[in-house]
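Researcher: Sequence recovery benchmark, item below. Answer with residues only.
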């Protein structure tokens, strides 16, 4: 049917975008690890953003398995790292604002607070989204199922 075809196209576009994001993030991580001169505070923020985005992309590419346990693990992981990716972007914006607009150079003191903010908020939002729902059951949050043709489709 037409709607099934549209969903397959959307799935392919999403997977392709995630694969490109994974490649770009992996390149940033590799450069950070190979070149010591990049290991300044501002580049550390970009590195952590790239790590979070790399894992978000990886779990997006993996898709939601039909098995309830793997679906649960996949969805929690994808949500956690995608939120972390967004939050690392906010720390970079904060750092830029503080150094460029306010002309303050004390941003390195925020390193621990940034980690607490990003990883803590990601954990809290990931756990909170499961309260009071059927999270992890196929057909609810785990929307990708296998059809009789072996193709993925959304329920």
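Model:
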């Amino acid at each position: 049917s037409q709607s099934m075809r549209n969903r397959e196209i959307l799935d392919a576009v999403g997977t392709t975008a995630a694969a490109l994001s994974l490649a770009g993030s992996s390149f940033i991580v590799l450069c950070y690890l190979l070149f010591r001169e990049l290991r300044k505070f501002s580049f550390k923020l970009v590195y952590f953003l790239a790590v979070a985005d790399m894992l978000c992309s990886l779990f997006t590419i993996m898709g939601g398995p039909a098995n309830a346990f793997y679906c649960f693990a996949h969805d929690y992981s994808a949500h956690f790292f995608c939120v972390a990716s967004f939050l690392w972007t906010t720390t970079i914006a904060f750092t830029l604002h503080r150094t460029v607009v306010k002309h303050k150079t004390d941003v390195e003191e925020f390193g621990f607070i940034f980690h607490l903010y990003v990883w803590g908020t990601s954990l809290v939002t990931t756990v909170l989204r499961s309260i009071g729902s059927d999270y992890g059951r196929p057909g609810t949050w785990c929307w990708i199922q296998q059809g009789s043709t072996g193709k993925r489709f959304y329920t």
